[in-house]
């Protein structure tokens, strides 16, 4: 038998592994998981009924074109049907965008730290990641990102609000940046947390895309809509980009259960807005509590907050876990804490208060 191994692509060497939020330990002291940006509420009204009905026929392939959902999205956002493309969560669509635009020798620009999937999906395509550091205020340095553009740049991610810092880019800065980007470079406005924004100066990416053929907007049903486990997201982009997304999609990747759940969720908007409003109120309470304890907390427009802890990051995460909540540490940088149930947030605030006194 040969001792040689199959040849794999050299680009796979050194690709970081995506690290999901740590789950709550079964039978252990941890009661609340604040390590993944999940919605603590159950599915919206009508969703379980739609999923249950769809489950009766999951011996059949799902609708490849996601026809019903695409029509709903087109009507909801006032865009042509041809400008909608769906995928397995916004991260799945993001990977399709990199595949459609970038290969060996090409460059993909994004802020850092930002969504940890960006370097993974960039390197999988063989492209070179160009990471532009966040400044002290934790907001994208769009001037530095514009200066990083070269003739090899094919795609730029702007995560707005940014994961994991929660900070958001405002309209004037974003429009000035978009004016500087060459028309043949695709700018992806990753708006996975759009529903949680309360700053009126943070623009809706879909309004910006309408007059800019090189702008694509990513959205997801995983966060505000609470469908994280069904893996469904979508892009709004002009026809050439949307068509490329359909070409790079995994056939039948979005299950019929996910499609029906997304449609039902869109139709439960009043309930959705109420839940999001409650989470925003909790976010504001947590931020005010932390600042009252003496913490420096960036202004979050998402369903999580960020504490830059540096070398104290892992110790802080361990202290939280000991008291019953799991947070998401980024070693040497900081922790991201999802806004969860009020009880979970209370525990977190108590741990933060005690930890801050020991610093």
CATH fold-level assignment of the largest domain: Aspartate Aminotransferase, domain 2
Mean pLDDT, as a whole number?
94
CATH superfamily descriptor of the largest domain:
Type I PLP-dependent aspartate aminotransferase-like (Major domain)
> What is the alpha-carbon Rg in Å?
21 Å
Structural class: alpha/beta
Number of helices: 12
- Please trace the helix and strand order, writing H or E for each element: EHHEHEHEHEHEHEEHHHEHEEEH
Largest sheet: 7 strands, mixed
Structurally, the number of domains stands at 2
Strand content: 15-25%
Terminal residue distance? 60 Å
Subunit structure: Homodimer.
Function: Aminotransferase that catalyzes the conversion of aromatic amino acids and 2-oxoglutarate into corresponding aromatic oxo acids and L-glutamate.
Keywords: Aminotransferase, Pyridoxal phosphate, Transferase
Modified residues (N6-(pyridoxal phosphate)lysine): 223
Protein model, in words:
This protein is α/β, with parallel strands linked by helices and 359 residues long. The chain has 2 domains: 20-43 and 268-358, Aspartate Aminotransferase, domain 1 (Alpha-Beta Complex), CATH 3.90.1150; 47-267, Type I PLP-dependent aspartate aminotransferase-like (Major domain) (Aspartate Aminotransferase, domain 2), CATH 3.40.640. It contains 12 helices and 12 strands. It has helices at residues 47-55, 67-77, 89-101, 117-124, 142-147, 171-180, 205-209, 239-248, 256-266, 269-292, 313-322, 342-358; strands spanning 32-33, 84-87, 107-112, 128-133, 153-159, 186-190, 215-220, 233-236, 304-308, 325-326, 328-330, 334-338. The strands form 3 sheets. Strands 2-8-7-6-5-3-4 form a 7-stranded mixed sheet, with helices on both faces. Helix 2 packs parallel to helix 9. The radius of gyration is 21 Å and the shape is globular. The chain starts with 31 loop residues before the first strand and ends with a helix.
């Amino acid at each position: 038998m040969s001792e040689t191994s199959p040849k794999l692509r050299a680009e796979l060497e050194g690709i970081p592994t995506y690290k999901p939020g740590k789950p709550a330990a079964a039978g252990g002291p941890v009661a609340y998981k604040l390590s993944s940006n999940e919605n603590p509420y159950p599915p919206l009204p009508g969703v379980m009924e739609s999923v249950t009905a769809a489950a009766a026929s999951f011996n059949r392939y799902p609708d490849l074109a996601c026809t019903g959902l695409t029509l709903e999205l087109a009507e909801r956002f006032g865009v042509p049907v041809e400008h909608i493309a769906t995928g397995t969560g916004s991260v799945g669509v993001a990977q399709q965008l990199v595949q459609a635009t970038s290969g060996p020798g090409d460059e993909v620009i994004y802020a850092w730290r930002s969504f940890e999937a960006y370097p993974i999906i960039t390197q999988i395509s063989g492209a070179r990641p160009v990471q532009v550091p966040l400044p002290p205020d934790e907001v994208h340095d769009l001037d530095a990102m514009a200066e990083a553009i070269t003739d090899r740049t094919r795609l730029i991610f702007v995560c707005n609000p940014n994961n994991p810092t929660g900070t958001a880019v405002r309209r004037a800065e974003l429009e000035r940046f978009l004016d500087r980007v060459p028309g043949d470079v695709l700018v992806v406005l990753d708006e996975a947390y759009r529903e949680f924004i309360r700053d009126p100066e943070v623009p809706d990416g879909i309004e910006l895309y309408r007059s800019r053929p090189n702008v694509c907007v990513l959205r997801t049903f995983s966060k505000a809509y609470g469908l994280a486990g069904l893996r469904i997201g979508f892009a709004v982009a002009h026809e050439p980009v949307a068509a490329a997304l359909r070409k790079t999609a995994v056939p039948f990747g979005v299950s019929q259960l996910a499609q029906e759940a997304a449609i039902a969720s869109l139709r439960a908007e009043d309930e959705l807005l109420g839940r999001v409003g409650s989470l925003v109120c909790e976010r504001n309470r947590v931020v005010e509590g932390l600042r009252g304890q003496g913490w420096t907390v960036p202004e979050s427009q998402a369903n999580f907050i960020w504490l830059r802890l540096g070398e104290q990051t892992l110790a802080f995460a361990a202290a939280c876990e000991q008291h019953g909540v799991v947070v998401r540490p980024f070693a040497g940088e900081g922790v991201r804490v999802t806004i969860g149930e009020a009880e979970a947030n209370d525990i977190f605030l108590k741990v933060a208060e005690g930890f801050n006194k020991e610093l």
